[in-house]
Amino acid sequence: MKYTQKTKYFIYGVIATAVLVPLGTYAVKTIPVTFSEGDVLSASVLNSLMTRINDVQQGFTSVADLNGAWSCTVYDTGAFGTDQCSADGVLVNSKTGNLTFNSANKTWSWAGAGSLNDCGSGGSSTGTYDVKAGILITDLGVYDTRRRGPNEFVWFITNSMPASGFNVCTKSNQAPAPADALSATVSGTSVALAWTDQSTDETGFKVQYKTSAKGTWTTATTTAANATSYTITGLTAATYWIRVIAKNANGDAMSSSETQAVVQ
Fold it and tell me: Among 41, 64, 92, 253, which has the minimal tally of Cβ within 10 Å of its Cβ?
């Protein structure tokens, strides 16, 4: 049987769906992009999807994975040392703060009330850290970490018996959420694009196209923030692969799904 280019993309889409669906929560948190019947899933889109999935499943493997600023909520289920927390339900007390990892010199710093470990008032606000096989090692103790997405992780205290607390941390400086639901309408030598803006902090959208599946992307424009449409003009007769990428000072989002446009 001879496969056409579109047939191959459809097969790739089926494979991607089979991989993504069982991941449930991971997929929702990690890949806020929807796909519809007939969408083009290129190798670059699939590679981006699989990289994010692999990162979540693999967890943290180096100090660089944690580098940067994180907004953390410290949860403490212990009966003592709760003077720095507020009640958070019947069984848990909690507080918030900012945790920064510097991978260059393997140091951490905590800006928040009390201890980073629990709801007590003592504790250091700075220290050193390392990462081994997904385990966060600091001068305060050893923590089992669970990655919940590219920008969030949970860590559990493992050096106390029994463990009485855990922290949930979200990356403070993130790339924007990706553009979604990209569509294209051809009129003469122009292609009018429309998409959904899923982000609140993008500085613009890169509109890119190429004329073959393995071709090089050309950036037609970078729009202003909050844009949801753009028209590429002056195109020659060809089949175009088109995508939109949200961006901000922290980097590029995962690209939108690609759409094809045939200019006669």
Answer: 64
